């Protein structure tokens, strides 16, 4: 062993320099470059948003977009969230790659562990190795892991859409006075006995009438079908006060212009129920505004009961006050500063992983085979065909060291390459995701049933990640930070799911790679190749598996951000004045939750399907230790 042993260990001297253009060093450099690019994007956008005079900043909240339609704001918010999830997926996958390289043991560390009858993992992500590798690499591994937690707790809520909602007054009025030139005398307009209104309601109506008479706002006449369709919204942002024109009516008929009046408060789940026939009189009973809108489009008449009139009256049309939409896309400066700090630390750790790791590590299965063939391990000499059970029960305690018989147990499946603990942890996170999505979906359907139809069509109409008055969590938050942390808690769970799922595939593919040696001639895949060997940038998961896994992770993160999200709505009164009431809570989307639930089940079934595959040839099944 002398010459070979000497040559092997000469490579582990501190003066040895890593080969920068081969193996995992290049892979980690690519990960570091990706992290730096993401850092520049985050810093650049933050500086641009904070210093651009065209944007407003108040209390650390920067308004990126204001004044356009709310649909445009939602579209911008959706694309920004999609971009954020792409960037976070790059950071997550790069972190996982770098951590696996950092946790890979050197030959000297393996020899030291074997001398104490302990083992280390090779070729797979490992927490066990952290207790047996150099402290510097352990510190870098922990730093990369810890910086991932704030990223996934905060990143998705750094940008959010803030909607506006108008409270408004609905007034049923006589036909002749609502036409051009109407309301020449406010006393006539407010004549009669208004038992249905309070004094402040009458004063509000007076101010609304003044605005209409002076044409200080833009008004539009709407047919009944258009009127109900435009006002059948949870948060009305482009319209406000409404006159219902009663057909075949006049002041001589009812001795008053104002036949009825009521206020509609923005953000109430029952905002649109005033359209229904009996709602003003009974305030109870079933009412489905969507059904009413459909009936009016089919040619039915719109009839309602007023509190001042005994019989039903027919509404011939509406006069609607149009307003400017004031939805915004906002950016939280404090959150982005935390994200940038974590991003910076992560990039630095990745760079240090390449610069500071001088001693060659056994990162791939080929590295281990090459090393142990060149310099056999004296502590395991003769232990052919030993399995994990033997290592735990006998070898670890210094008993029964010697050759083991190989017993072929029929067709070997991929799942045999994965330890029970890894299967348990991966399935646990999959089940947590599925159960959490199922509970959220059940709660959402139950709440939807209280205010309308919980069917798939209704869920689809509410959309992905869109705020509505029904799909809001009934919790009170002291500040926006609390809502942000709770809304993004599932993102952290999904990050752990990706890591365990990736680890599962890594172990199975390691066993598959080993079985290929018995199928046909193959060269060793190592990080620092010698003649007759090959190098690769991927560790154990080929790109044909890694890219779909990254895509699945990014898609799950994005859909989760659309399932549970920060909801912020600014409320305006009937006169268009901003009031102190702002809805800051968490919204949810049932249809997005269904997609998350479906993908979670697909991931679980895919893992089981991959585990049931048979190896390429009959050969002893190997693990990673």
Automatic annotation (TrEMBL):
TM segment ranges: 27-51, 138-155, 331-355, 423-441, 496-517, 537-559, 579-605
Keywords, alphabetical: Membrane, Transmembrane, Transmembrane helix
Superkingdom assignment: Eukaryota
Keyword Lyase attached: no
Domain DUF6536: 24-175
Name listed for the protein in its UniProt record: DUF6536 domain-containing protein
Organism expressing this protein natively: Tuber aestivum
């Amino acid at each position: 062993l002398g010459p070979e042993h000497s040559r092997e260990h000469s490579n582990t001297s501190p003066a040895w320099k890593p080969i920068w253009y081969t193996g995992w060093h290049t892979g980690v450099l690519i990960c570091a470059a990706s992290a730096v690019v993401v850092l520049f994007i985050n810093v650049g956008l933050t500086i641009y948003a904070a210093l651009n005079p065209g944007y407003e900043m108040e209390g650390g909240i920067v308004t990126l977009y204001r004044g356009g339609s709310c649909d445009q704001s939602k579209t911008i918010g959706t694309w920004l969230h999609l971009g954020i999830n792409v960037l976070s997926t790059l950071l997550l996958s790069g972190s996982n790659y770098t951590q696996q390289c950092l946790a890979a043991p050197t030959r000297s560390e393996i020899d030291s562990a074997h001398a104490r009858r302990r083992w280390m993992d090779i070729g797979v992500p490992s927490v066990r190795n952290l207790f047996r590798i150099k402290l510097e690499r352990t510190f870098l591994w922990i730093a990369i892991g810890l910086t991932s937690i704030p990223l996934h707790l905060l990143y998705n809520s750094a940008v959010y859409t803030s909607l506006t909602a108008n409270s408004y007054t609905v007034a049923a009025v006589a036909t002749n006075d609502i036409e051009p030139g109407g309301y020449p005398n406010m006393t006539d307009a407010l004549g009669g006995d208004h038992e249905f209104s309070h004094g402040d309601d009458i004063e509000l109506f007076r101010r609304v009438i003044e605005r209409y008479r002076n044409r200080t706002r833009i008004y539009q006449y709407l047919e009944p079908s258009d009127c109900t369709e435009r006002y059948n919204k949870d948060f009305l942002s482009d319209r406000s006060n409404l006159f219902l024109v009663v057909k075949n009516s006049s002041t001589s008929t009812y001795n008053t212009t104002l036949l009825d009046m009521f206020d509609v408060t923005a953000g109430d789940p029952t905002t649109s129920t005033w359209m229904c026939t009996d709602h003003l009189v009974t305030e109870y009973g079933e009412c489905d505004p969507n059904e009413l809108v459909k009936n009016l489009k089919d040619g039915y008449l719109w009839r309602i009961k007023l509190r001042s009139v005994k019989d039903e009256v027919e509404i011939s049309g509406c006069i609607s006050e149009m307003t400017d939409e004031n939805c915004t896309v906002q950016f939280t400066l404090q959150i982005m500063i935390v994200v940038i700090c974590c991003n910076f630390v992560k990039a630095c750790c990745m760079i240090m992983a390449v610069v500071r790791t001088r001693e060659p590590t056994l990162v791939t299965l080929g590295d281990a085979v090459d090393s142990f063939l060149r310099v056999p391990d004296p502590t395991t000499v003769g232990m052919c065909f030993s399995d994990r059970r033997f290592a735990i029960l006998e070898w670890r305690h210094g008993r029964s060291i010697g050759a083991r018989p190989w017993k072929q147990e029929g067709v070997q499946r991929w799942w045999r390459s994965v330890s029970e603990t890894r299967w348990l942890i991966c399935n646990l996170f999959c089940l947590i995701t599925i159960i959490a999505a199922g509970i959220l979906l059940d709660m959402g359907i139950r709440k939807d049933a209280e205010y309308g139809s919980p069917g798939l069509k209704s869920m689809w109409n509410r959309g992905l990640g869109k705020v509505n008055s029904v799909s809001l969590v009934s919790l009170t938050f002291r500040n926006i930070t609390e809502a942000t942390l709770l809304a993004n808690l599932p993102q952290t769970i999904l990050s752990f799911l990706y890591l365990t799922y990736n680890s599962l595939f890594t172990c199975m593919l390691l066993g598959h790679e080993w079985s290929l040696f018995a199928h046909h001639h193959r060269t060793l895949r190592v990080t620092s190749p010698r003649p007759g060997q090959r190098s690769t940038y991927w560790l154990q998961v080929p790109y044909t598996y890694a890219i779909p896994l990254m895509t699945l992770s990014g898609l799950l993160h994005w859909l989760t951000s659309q399932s549970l999200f920060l909801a912020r709505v600014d409320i305006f009164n009937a006169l268009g004045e901003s009031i102190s009431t702002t809805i800051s809570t968490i919204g949810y989307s049932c249809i997005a939750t269904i997609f998350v639930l479906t993908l979670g089940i697909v991931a679980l079934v895919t893992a089981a399907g991959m585990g049931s595959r048979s190896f390429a040839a009959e050969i002893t099944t190997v693990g990673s230790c």
